Amino acid sequence: MFRKLMTFEEAQRAIASQFKPSALGEEEAVLLEAYNRVLAEDVVSTLDIPPFSRSTMDGYAVKAEDTFGADENQPATLKVCGVVNIGEQPHVNVAKGEAVEIVTGAPIPEGANAVVMVEDTEREDSELHVFTPITPNENVMKCGSDIKKGEAVLKKGQILGSSEIGVLAALGLTKVQVSRIPMIAVLSTGGEVTEPGKPLPPGKIYDINAYSISTAVTESGGKPVYFGVVPDDKEALSKALHLALVSADMVITSGGVSVGPRDYTPQIVDSLGKPGIVVYGIAVKPGKPTTIAFIGEKPVFSLPGHPTSALLIFYLLARPLIQQLAGRPVGAMKTIRAAAGSRMFSAKGRRTFVMVRLMFDKNCRLIADPVESGASGAITTLAKADGFVEIPENEQFVDSDQEVLVFLFRNVAGKV
Amino acid sequence: MFRKLMTFEEAQRAIASQFKPSALGEEEAVLLEAYNRVLAEDVVSTLDIPPFSRSTMDGYAVKAEDTFGADENQPATLKVCGVVNIGEQPHVNVAKGEAVEIVTGAPIPEGANAVVMVEDTEREDSELHVFTPITPNENVMKCGSDIKKGEAVLKKGQILGSSEIGVLAALGLTKVQVSRIPMIAVLSTGGEVTEPGKPLPPGKIYDINAYSISTAVTESGGKPVYFGVVPDDKEALSKALHLALVSADMVITSGGVSVGPRDYTPQIVDSLGKPGIVVYGIAVKPGKPTTIAFIGEKPVFSLPGHPTSALLIFYLLARPLIQQLAGRPVGAMKTIRAAAGSRMFSAKGRRTFVMVRLMFDKNCRLIADPVESGASGAITTLAKADGFVEIPENEQFVDSDQEVLVFLFRNVAGKV
Question: Could you tell me the residue ranges of all domains in chain B?
C-alpha cells in the first residue's frame, strides 16, 4: 500500500483506467411511472400510426377524380351516401359520383382517396356541389405516415421524458424495459458518530454523511442503499463492507480515512479483493485523505469524514461514475461566472476548492463570497454554500474582485 | 360563454387574476426520502452543534495559562494525567500544570481551555514539554459554535437537497415536515382515443396525452392523478370532471375542445362552478382552442387533443401554476441561441410556436431545424423536437439563418 498523494488529474486517470461501466441489466417499468428512466432497448413500432388513413379536415370523403375540372361555375355534383364519425369504422363505400360526410380524425371510407373541405362545398339534402378540384390524398393523413409498423421509434439509452413516454403510449404500450438503477451502498464510520433518530451519547455527534451522500446519490441517478453508521471496530466494518459489495454496484464510505490509530477503513478496503486501492490520497483541499479502490469491477470510495469535504469529492469524482453506471450522459456541473467577494487562498501545492455563496452587491454584480467554514467540521458550511471556486495548484490565491468560475451544487434559479 | 380569442398575454393575465396559490398543507416525510421536497416549516435547532467543545487537532488539552511564556528554550512542562478518545465522554479533569492527550474531534475535558498541537510538544513518559504558548480556545471548536440551540437553520420553502438533508441529519432528525405535493388530475377525452394496453378497435388510435401530460406534471413537481380516457358522452365526462375536482388541486383535460358537435368539454367545465371559463381560445398556433377555467380556486385546463399542441400549452401556461402550487420557484424554460435552419412562417395574427430540432451544421454552427409535423396529429413531432421557436404576432416569418431563441423541452446536454 503506497501513500504518495496523486494530483487531481492522476486520480481521475487512475479511476478511468479501472472503471468499466457495463450494463447493469434491465427491468420492466410501468410506463406511467417511467419518467426519467433510461430506455434499455430500441423500441420498434408494432403498429402503423395512424393505423388507418384519417381525414385532417371536416368535409366530404370523395374520389378525387370526381372533382377534376370543378370550379365556381361548374361544380362537380355528387351524391352524399353516408357519414363517418370519429372513432368509428366506416360502414359505407364511396363509389364513383358519391361522397361521404366526414369529420377531422375519422377514417377515410373504402373507395374514397381525398377529402374536400366543407368550405368548398354546398349541400342540398343528399346533393353535394363541390366548387374546387382536389388531388388524390388531399386532406388525408395516410395510414403509417407518422410511424410505419417495424420502424425504430426510440433508441436504447434515451431518457424517458414526457415526449418519449407519449410516443410509447401511442404504440399502445403500458410497460417498458428500462435499465436497472445502480445501487450505491452508503455507510459512515467513525467512533464519534451516532445515527440520527437515536439518543445522542455524551462525546458523540450525529452522522451527516450517510444522509447527505445518499441524497446526492439519488440526485445523480443512483439508488442509495443506506447502511447508516457502522460500529467502530474492524470486524463490524469488514462485515459491512462485504455486505455492501454484494448488495450494491458501488460503495461509498466516509470517515475513518485519516491517520488516527482507528482509521482503518483503507486497510480493510484494500483486503477485500483485487485490484484494491488505486488512489491513496489526493493533493486537493479539502478531501486529501480520500482513497478509491476497485474490488473486481466495483468502485469503493472512502471519503473523508468532514461533511463538506465528503460531498465535494463525491460531486467531483463519484457522481460521474454513478451517471455512467446508470447509462446516463455524464453531466458537467453547472457553472456561473462571478466576482470573488474577497481574497481566497490556496493550500500550498494542492488544488484548492473554496466554498462560496452567491449574492449580488449593491451594483447588482454577482459575487462569489467565501463561506467561512470556521473550525473544520462546521456543518453549516454545507447549507450556506451554493458551490465552489477551484484554485489551481500553481496559484497562491484568487484576488478580491477577480472573475471566478463557480461550480454550482444546486439549482440557484431562485437566487440569481 | 364568450368566444373571443385572447392574445397570449391576455390569457396569462386572465390566469394571474384568478390564481391564488394557497398552501396545500403539509405532511411528514422520512428524511432519507425527502430529496427534492419543499420544507414546510422553519427548522430551529434543538441542539448545540457541536454539542460539546471539540479539539480540532491531535495534541494535548491544557490550560492555556500554563503555556504562557513558553518557547523553544524554556518549554512549559506539564504532567500528562490521561487521554480522551474520540466519541467518549472525558473522565479526567485538567488541573493547573496538567495535560490530557486528545485526538481531533474528541471532547475537551473539564478544566482545559485549549489544545496544543502534538508537533509543538515533546513527551517523556508522563512528562510533557510544550514549546509554544497558546491562547485560550486555540484549536478548540466551541460547543454551539456551528449551530446554537434555538437557532433557525433552514427556512420554510427551501428545497431539500443533499446539503439541507445533511443539516437536518446533524440535528438528529429522521423525519421532516414538507409541503404536500399538488395533485393534478389528468384526463383525455375524444371519441377516437383508446387507452394504451387495451385492444385497439377499428377507427381508433391510442391516447397519448394522458401519458405525456402526466409525465410533464411529475417533471413540474406535481403528482399526476391518472384518469385515462373518459368515455365520449356528456354524463361520463361530467362525472369524471366532478371526481377530478374533488380529488385534485388542478385538472387538465385534453381533446374535445374544437368546434365539432361532440366537443362539449368547455360547456361542461363552465357548468361546474364559478367563476368558470376565463380563457376561451388563445390566438396562438398551435393550441388555439385551449380553454382555461377556475372552479373555486382550482384551475381547469382544457388542452387541444393534438399531442404536441397539448404539451406545448402545458409548458407555457399550466406548468408555472403547478410550480407555484408546489411552493417552488417558477423556473423559466431553459433557452439556447441557434440559427434558423430554414424559413419558418407564422400563422396570421397568432403567436406561432415552431417545433425545432437542434443540430450542428458542417461549420459547427448550432441550427434550429423545424420539425416537419406533416399532417396535424403526427406524434413523432413530439419525440423529434428539442424545443420551439416563438414568432411574434406582428412578424410573418423568421428567415433562414436568422438567430433565434430556442425554448428547450428537455435537457439537451447530451446533444449540443
Answer: 8-24+181-325, 26-48+152-179, 54-141, 335-408
Q: At residue B382, does pLDDT exceed 80? A: no
Q: Determine contact, residues B344/B370, Cβ cutoff 8 Å.
A: yes
CA B373 to chain A, closest CA, distance in angstroms equals: 9
For the entire predicted model, the pTM comes to 0.92
Q: Which of A36, A90, A212 sits opposite B166 (nearest CB)?
A: A212
**Local structure of A49: helix, strand or coil:** strand
What residue in B sits closest to A380 (Cα-Cα)?
A: B146
Strand A114-117 to A59-62 pairing: antiparallel
Element of type H or E holding B244: helix B234-247
Contact B104 A258 (CB under 8 A): yes
CB contact under 8 A, A166 and B104: no
Contact A387, A407 (CB under 8 A): yes
pLDDT < 70 stretches in chain A? 1-3, 23, 257-262, 373-377, 411-416
Number of inter-chain CB pairs under 8 A, A vs B: 289
Q: Nearest-CA distance from A190 to chain B in Å? A: 8
The residue among B189, B197, B163 whose CA lies nearest residue B264 is: B189
Quick: pLDDT tens for B133-150.
999 999 999 999 889 999
Contacts of B173 in chain A (CB under 8 A): 196-197
Distance from CA of B275 to the nearest CA of A (A): 31
A214: Cβ contacts below 8 Å, ≥ 6 apart: A186, A224, A226, B32
Q: How confident is the model at residue B413 (pLDDT cuts 50, 70, 90)?
A: very low
List the single best residue of B192, B230, B315 to mutate versus A (max A Cβ within 10 A).
B192
A146/B54 CB distance under 8 A: no
**DSSP run (H or E) holding B389:** strand B387-391
| CATH number corresponding to B335-408 | 2.40.340.10
- For domain A26-46+153-179, give its CATH number from 3.10.580.10, 3.90.105.10, 3.40.50.720, 1.10.1200.10: 3.90.105.10
Please write the tens of the pLDDT for every residue from B205-263. Answer: 999 999 999 999 999 999 999 999 998 889 999 999 999 999 999 999 998 766 565 67
Contacts of A347 (CB under 8 A, 6+ apart): A285
Residues 6+ apart with CB under 8 A from A217: A184, A186, A223, A224, A252, A322
Q: What CA–CA distance (Å, rounded) separates A228 from B169?
A: 11
Q: Which fold has domain A54-141?
A: Molybdopterin biosynthesis moeA protein; domain 3 (2.170.190)
Radius of gyration (Cα) for chain B, nearest Å? 33
Handedness of CA A312, A316, A317, A320 (dihedral sign): positive
- Tell me the C-alpha distance between A403 and A389, whole Å: 10
ipTM computed for the complex: 0.91
Residue of A187, A205, A232 to mutate when probing chain B, most B C-beta within 10 A: A205
Question: What's residue A382's pLDDT?
Answer: 77
CATH architecture of B8-24+181-325: 3-Layer(aba) Sandwich (3.40)
